[in-house]
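Per reviewer request, we include the raw input and output of the structure prediction for the construct analysed in the revised manuscript.
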Amino acid sequence: MPAITATLTVDLAALCANYRLLKQRHAAGKVAAVVKANAYGLGMVPVATALAEREGCTVFFVATLSEAVTLREALPAAIIHVFAGPLKGEEADYAVHRLRPVLNSMEHLERWRAFRQHTGEVSPLPAALHVDTGMCRLGLSMEDLPRLDPESLVRECGLTLLMSHLACASEPAHPLNAEQLRLFTEARRSFPALPASLANSSGHFLSHDFHFDLGRPGCALYGITPNPDLPNPMQHVATWSAPILQIRTIERDQPIGYGATRTVTRDMKVATVASGYADGLHRTASNVLAAWIEDHRCPMLGRVSMDLTCYDVTAVPDSVLEGADRVTLMGPQQPVDTLADAYGTIGYEVLCHLGGRVTPVYR
């Protein structure tokens, strides 16, 4: 019996191939995996498990403590960093679950140092230090660094990694890239013994000067292009398909959907498909984004509604249409970045907004 819900098929082999490509691109060849936001909507535990078991990935980054605790249950031996760092009162949870906070502020440093001193455990409670070099979100400012005693800080806070985050790596010629590299190199002089990490997904495609000791790719693992101006070197990972509920013939001059925003200009076969904005299909793609049946493009007709969307399947041969029970909304012919363009957003948001009604399938 075919599934009655939309399906997200995650190609774990393609995911692993993307990880290998990023390792090959990285000068040091050591690459972590960013699996925050449920691995960008594709399923944190199956994605991380595949990377750990098939590719030997040992270092992971997530956004929150709750994500890290879930991942720890699946990967008992992994090194797991938490970008947000410890909120007040969370320090003991990091110790219990053997997690590594990213320390983003002077307050983080003081609280983590005090916690380690209070527990009397010096070495088993490691952490990463985040220095802001131009993103202006999280991280110690460059002005904070002269106030620190680096040698004592490394020892008392158990620092094992120095990191920053590139703001414009997907635009190689952007001047902020060079400025961030300069500032991060300056910050590293204060912590010469610490491994360093600067390159995100797009950073792997900048010069080796940006790579340092550890890469931290996220979006490229999942097939999102690291540079919108160049052909995408990453393999397609996520395919979104949805069931066809009905195929009917609509006579010319009939309106379709809410608001009657589309009127058919000829008799046509129309497929009503069980996916809408409740599944993550943005309403901004109304009358724009196509669906695919095998190699046949099917234009959208009318608005995306909560549960349903309509497509023109007139050009699909009857021999194909008779055996079709689903359309593909995101796949090799229409990858995630194409959806992002139709939505007026980025691939990250497309994947993260896939709804709970979209059933994941791993192969």
